[in-house]
Design goal:
The structure is a single chain. The protein is an alpha+beta fold. It is 48% helix and 7% strand. The protein has two domains: 9-279 and 427-475, 2-methylcitrate dehydratase PrpD (Orthogonal Bundle), CATH 1.10.4100; 284-413, 60s Ribosomal Protein L30, Chain: A, CATH 3.30.1330.120. The chain has helices at 9-18, 26-46, 50-62, 79-91, 114-126, 134-153, 169-180, 185-197, 204-208, 212-232, 248-251, 259-263, 284-299, 316-322, 337-340, 344-354, 370-376, 387-394, 428-440, 448-459, and strands spanning 68-69, 76-77, 98-99, 111-112, 275-276, 307-314, 379-383, 400-405, 410-413. The strands form three sheets. The protein has a four-stranded mixed β-sheet. The protein has a three-stranded antiparallel β-sheet with strand order 4-3-5. A hairpin with a 6-residue loop joins strand 1 (68-69) and strand 2. It is globular.
Length: 476
């Protein structure tokens, strides 16, 4: 482990405080607008989930100052609780975006990002006593969404062993909220110090298909909000949260640190532009297999009842995360919806049979569908050559797919970029269609006029003079 006399957090803090809306590339602004629609849509859908109802009830029962609205309802709660509950709500159906890795750096992925930054920033804006401009909201979100993947990618391989984007989420949230609150350099530095004390979260819930995996986003959002609020009240944070003797990279990541990943292009390249929109309600590790298998079957006229076997070649991480259980058995028969979302064989089968994997067809009834279960049993997942190397550089490597039919015909292929990836992006109309679908499956879907006002407000966000009610208007 190494100690330093000047922690790189100083460069990060100066960047956060100095960056203005006029400094943002057009792609960064567009990425924020896309992420707001996508994250709020995920939250609207999430309000119907058991997990959301649980954290909302806890937030409501805790009482406190009515700062910001809980998504899907009319109750306002303190800032930290709003950030926490809304982040969990937007995360718990596996519909929120993910960072795919930086094509400029080749150091893997940042993981879940917007689901922490956006609920926190929108809550802070809503609670403001003064008007908050759309340009300020966009700038804050762009900065926070850039820092989360940068800090994680700078840990290289070590940053992907057991950790999540939300593990270091408090840094990005504190920076974003502090930017919205117009912190000076000293206050922002204290917020970053406090943010490190809030870091937590792991991927064991992902491996087990447990609900814990969704808590990570809430903890990251709340932790960053608490850190920013502490700094606003005069807290003195550590001055070496990244490379101090017990700083993030030494303590969490075994001393691995790649400065170019953290500081390269800081202020000119914003990693939020590398976020993928998720078109399936399942772990991102399953998406390429769902998409590529469906595309191969469709374009080659392969009917579901003709399939003898579907072979998927993936990375070691993908195999462990979504294909086999702790004993090495293929996860073909999940016993819950959450387990199904982390079962590649099952969601591939659902996607092939029904053409989508979304909360309205990923149901308890689906878990017992004999045709889906029989098809899932035909999915074989193995580690394929070269996938681990790709996993180290781009995060979610594309899977090799081979479909064998009963008559012995073999169709194989590999689609590099899943729909929703920045290099195979959804159109704005497709994004709106996903948002509409999320509204349709909510127990309290927004009124049509409120939905249209929200979408138009996001379109015009850069010139908005006051966006404190940007999301609250959906739930009146």
């Amino acid at each position: 482990m190494s100690t330093v006399t000047e922690d790189p957090i100083r460069d990060v803090v100066h960047h956060v405080c100095q960056t203005q809306f006029s400094d943002l590339p057009e792609a960064a602004v567009a990425a924020v607008q896309r992420a707001i629609i996508d994250t709020v849509g995920a939250g609207i859908a999430g309000t119907s989930s058991t997990m959301s109802k649980m954290v909302v009830e806890m937030a409501e029962s805790a009482g406190g100052r009515p700062d910001a609205r809980l998504w899907g309802g009319r109750v306002r709660v303190p800032l930290a609780e709003a950030a926490y509950a809304n982040a969990v709500t937007a995360r718990c159906l596996e519909l929120d975006d993910v960072h795919e890795g930086s094509p400029d750096l080749g150091l893997g992925f940042g993981g879940h990002v917007s689901v922490m930054i956006i609920p926190a920033v929108l809550a802070a804006a809503e609670a403001s006593a003064e008007p908050v401009s759309g340009a300020d909201v966009i700038t804050a979100i762009a900065i926070g969404s850039d820092l989360v993947p940068r800090i994680r990618m700078a840990a290289g391989t070590s940053g992907r062993f057991g950790w999540e984007g939300p593990t270091i989420g408090p840094f990005g949230v504190a920076a974003a909220v502090g930017k919205l609150w117009k912190f000076d350099v000293s206050t922002m530095a204290n917020a970053m110090g406090a943010a490190y004390s809030q870091c937590c979260g792991n991927v064991q819930g992902t491996v087990d298909g447990a609900w814990d995996v969704w808590l990570n986003a809430g903890l990251g959002a709340r932790g960053g909000m608490v850190a920013a609020n502490l700094a606003r009240h005069g807290h003195r944070g550590t001055s070496a949260p990244l490379l101090g003797v017990s700083g993030l990279y030494n303590l969490y990541f075994g001393g691995e640190f790649h400065p170019e990943a953290l500081l390269g292009g800081l202020g000119s390249r914003f990693e939020g532009a590398n976020l993928s929109v998720k078109i399936y309600s399942s772990c991102r590790y399953t998406h390429n297999a769902i998409y590529a298998t469906g595309e191969l079957a469709h374009h080659n006229g392969i009917a579901v009842d003709e399939i003898e076997e579907i072979w998927v070649g993936t990375s070691t991480s993908g195999l462990k995360m979504v294909a086999v259980d702790s004993e090495g058995n293929m996860k073909c028969r999940p016993d819950s919806i959450s387990a199904a979302q982390f079962s590649l064989p099952f969601v591939v089968a659902v996607g092939l049979k029904y053409g989508q994997v979304f909360p309205d067809n990923l149901t308890e009834q689906m878990l017992r569908d004999p045709e889906v279960l029989a098809l899932a049993e035909k999915v074989v997942v193995e580690v394929a050559a070269g996938k681990d190397e790709l996993n180290a550089t781009q995060g979610y490597p594309p899977d090799d797919i081979r479909i064998t039919t009963r008559d012995g015909q073999v169709t194989s292929g590999c689609i590099p970029f899943t729909k929703g990836h920045p290099l195979n992006p959804v159109t704005f109309d497709e994004l709106v269609a996903k948002f509409d679908h999320c509204c349709e499956i909510s127990e309290r879907p927004p009124a049509e006029d409120a939905r249209l006002r929200f979408l138009e407000s996001v379109r015009q966000l850069a010139v908005a003079t006051d966006c404190r009610d940007l999301v609250a208007g959906l739930f009146t």
